Amino acid sequence: MSSYNAPLNDIRFALYDVLGAEALFQRLGYADASRDIVDAVLEEAARFTGSVLAPLNSVGDEVGCSFDAASGDVTTPPGFRQAYQQFVDGGWSGLTSAADFGGQGLPHVLGVPLNEMINAANLAWGNFPLLSHGAVHALEHHGQDWQREVFLKPLVEGRWTGTMCLTEPHCGTDLGLLKTRATANADGESYSISGTKIFITAGEHDFTDNIVHLVLAKLPDAPPGAKGISLFVVPKFKVAGDGTVGERNGVRCGSIEHKMGIKASATCVINFDDAQGYLVGGAHKGLQAMFTMMNTARLGVGLQGIGLSERAYQNALRYARERLQSRALSGARFPDKPADPIIVHPDVRRMLLSIKSLVEGSRLLALHAGSLIDVAKRAADPKEREEAETLVSFLTPISKACQTEWGIENTYNAVQCFGGHGYIREHGIEQLARDARITTLYEGTTGIQALDLIGRKTAASHGAGLKLFLAQVQAFVKQHQDDQAMAEFIVPLARKAEEWASLTTDILQRAQDNPEELGAASYDYLFYSGYVVLAYWWARSVAAANASAHGADFRQSKLETARFYYARILPRTLTHAAAIQSGAAPLMAMADARFGE
Amino acid sequence: MSSYNAPLNDIRFALYDVLGAEALFQRLGYADASRDIVDAVLEEAARFTGSVLAPLNSVGDEVGCSFDAASGDVTTPPGFRQAYQQFVDGGWSGLTSAADFGGQGLPHVLGVPLNEMINAANLAWGNFPLLSHGAVHALEHHGQDWQREVFLKPLVEGRWTGTMCLTEPHCGTDLGLLKTRATANADGESYSISGTKIFITAGEHDFTDNIVHLVLAKLPDAPPGAKGISLFVVPKFKVAGDGTVGERNGVRCGSIEHKMGIKASATCVINFDDAQGYLVGGAHKGLQAMFTMMNTARLGVGLQGIGLSERAYQNALRYARERLQSRALSGARFPDKPADPIIVHPDVRRMLLSIKSLVEGSRLLALHAGSLIDVAKRAADPKEREEAETLVSFLTPISKACQTEWGIENTYNAVQCFGGHGYIREHGIEQLARDARITTLYEGTTGIQALDLIGRKTAASHGAGLKLFLAQVQAFVKQHQDDQAMAEFIVPLARKAEEWASLTTDILQRAQDNPEELGAASYDYLFYSGYVVLAYWWARSVAAANASAHGADFRQSKLETARFYYARILPRTLTHAAAIQSGAAPLMAMADARFGE
Q1: Which of A7, A177, A518 is the closest to B329 by Cβ?
Q2: How far does B403 lie from chain A, in Å, by closest CA?
Q3: For A295-299, A422-426, B264-268, B476-480, which range has the lowest pLDDT when averaged over its residues?
Q4: In chain A, is it the N or the C terminus that has fewer CB atoms within a 10 Å radius of its CB?
Q5: Which fold has domain A161-285?
Q6: B313, B346, B592 ranked by CB distance to A520: nearest
Q7: What's the CATH number of domain B8-66+74-141, 3.40.50.2300, 3.40.50.300, 1.10.3720.10, 1.10.540.10?
Q8: How does pLDDT run across A377-433, given as a tens digit for each residue?
Q9: Helix (H, G, I), strand (E, B) or coil at A136
Q10: What are the beta bridge partners of residue B267?
Q11: A8-141 belongs to CATH 1.10.540.10
């Protein structure tokens, strides 16, 4: 079985030393978020996830969820329900929600390390509370007062959980095709919803008494396509306007999927059969509400990549230190042992440092995005709020796609460090790789994130998000331009930032003649962006470590990891830039029939 | 469930049009390998693998092998044993073995498409006959006459299967550490072998009456390390010098592993308890014999990557043509349908073309390596034989590592084309990805192949293999240097070939001062090499297609796939070159303790 200890030291470094969270929380008026409180929260989160959730991870994989076709009930693996009760009792469910709705009122950004830890400890378990956040945000932003009153508090407190019911058998990405229908009931308030949704995470389970489904459906007078989508809140047990829970609604789980991994996460077919629901937001305004849920969920899935990577790293590192095999090429390092530990071998170090540099860099990308949500919500200056909103929108597809793709790479490398032992269940490493595999698929595949970045978040907004990010990079470059010790990072960073801007201009120009250029560049543009973003965070990490009270070994470790990143990972931008520059023709020339029989 | 049809058209193109197999077979004196015969063999192989093996693939994954602890017996999934009987009855087992030992005497290279098809149809099943080949080669080259007489015929005919018993719990790569012991028996002929081997593929099963284990062990007077290893042949049931099968030997399966994939392949712990065995090759000469087995097995595992990739491609392509989702960016392509098939989207095409270009290119790399084995065995000129041997040795780690890593990438991309549907068992795509995951681990991890390439196959032989390969490239470049239509391939190919040579010189020079430079460059050097090798095969494919009798669509498809390869895949060499040039310091600087707690 694989072990997990929350990397509190690095989380604190990222929060306090790099992102200056103490000053930020004060500035944004989070009076309760003192360093003492935050430290206590992090330590308690580490304890809960390490001692309660992590030991259930392999049990969840072995046993999985089970489905009873007669009742439509889903039973979660042993210990899962009890762990959820502890989660609720500990107040974790509403850690960053407003006190008005039963939350703890702490900064949103603290949900980032909490969820990293949950995902590292037990990804499948983490999927049950995860989707509640999306539901909470949708109701907060688009719900009517009575809906907020009735549904939000139980969701925030974790007494109920939420879902996002979007996908149908014939439509995932293209929600304009959906067939679920809603018709107004005679009461003038509620709607009757019928249709089948698939791939509904936590759509049915035994954690809570009620489940709140947020369902996309079409009203009879809906315009065609995505503009005709409306959002409905549809509880498993009917809920009256005063919050009273009534009889069972026409909502039933039809089956659960058999999957490659996250076997303890119930992925449900949910059948709505004249189910009673309420419109959230205006008629045909569902798309906007959906994006509210989706963006929350996307950042959340990005954290799954980080959590799995961190756990993979810890276990690969331990194995690389213990496993004795062959001698260092430059001569025995431990002549008293029968062989050297494999961490002496350059290629094992390459794999470990790849994981380390991608995880620690990603952690900053994710925490930065999380902190921008706080700024967008609480900054005094409306311009600062708006810019934070623009920037986090821009970073969301990068964060989701890169962190999950790196999660796949990192768990891949961890398996590789274990050799054949990585492929058998015993060590628990192959589970991490199977679990990671879902993260680039759900909440929008990597290809969809790439289109979102180049399309909606860049082309449609004339690069507003990129400009804001590049301004940060340039300010940092300027601040350190005379610092000789930083030149090894500052010089290539400045060059990459310039190239990023010019590649963007190129793509947008070419797209004016041929819109396929956007799609053709999208994937490589996304990764190009991700690697430059991480280069920025690695440069900032070195500067922050040098200015921090951390010990010499910590500072040296940051410096050497940054050097590895710049020497061995950042050059991936060369390939991505070349691919972008090659344009759409190599992808689009081939007639569909010539792909094969 | 995923489907599979052997890509006979492309296999024939590669064999006949690119590699000139007809003339080669004639020149090497393979009188029976006329085009008619070879075509008939390929068609029958396609029928057998498609109709017998492929339908058992998902059954094998669902049911797996089962182990009876009381008897030590392994039961294979339903249908597996019967399929093996058909395989034996069809004469497939000895397709390329000498007629003297009951084989069909066809060229070795024909085993390449056969094994590609077997692996595509049912990788786990294919592992049972696979290891026999290594055993056959070891006995052919190193066995005494009576051993060849007694063991080879049943192995070639498939009445028995073979294994390679190398790994022990504490040693995989570093076989010098092994603890299995052999002592001479009083009969002056046999040895008594005791020890525990793990990860023994097909170590126990219900296909055949006997199993022939080739076991690495140490004699009492063995020098320490890898120089003290001897090879023994140890049958499950004792075999007398005259071939009579006797009582059960002291060989017993202790358990089978629970794995991420290839669940129908029995991965066994094999306990040897005073088992009777015979020395193969001289005392302490086991390493050489092991490399004979290993090289055969490595090329065989490389074909697993191709087989899985081909099946992944066929299914992803079918799905991309059927699944309707969103509209092409440049406007609806099928306005009469509710949405366009996803094959219109550039990023889906990127994934499909990545698979296509890597599979078809790999097929040539593998067939070329296979044909070199024929040349090494049968060419009249001893220099030609020796050069073929050198070249195939050089290409073996590239073939094994690249084809398996690309197999992982290709099955990854296929899952990605299916979106969330790729993650559930129903479509059979996630099985391909799980099965593929073993291929970069067994028979030497990718890191081990990389060290083999830069160390033994390059540094130790002063680049002899590389020089031979580059001479082929240069001859081809020269032949086409005035052909304007080929310039888009010839110019970059010539440049990459030059860069390959100069990167090699650089690494070897740096390694003189610091041997860690070899290890530090190894991984990136391997992939750099692989991408240039495929660039060569893609240029040759275009030239061969143009000169062939294939139709315009086929020729155009080759041309466009080659363009994709040069525009979108070959630029990966930029990243690998930069990583190589960054040297060992970014990997080696960090003290072990600074990797983390």
Answers
A1: A518
A2: 16
A3: A295-299
A4: C
A5: Butyryl-CoA Dehydrogenase, subunit A; domain 2 (2.40.110)
A6: B346
A7: 1.10.540.10
A8: 999 999 999 999 999 999 999 999 999 999 999 999 999 999 999 999 999 999 999
A9: helix
A10: B201
A11: yes
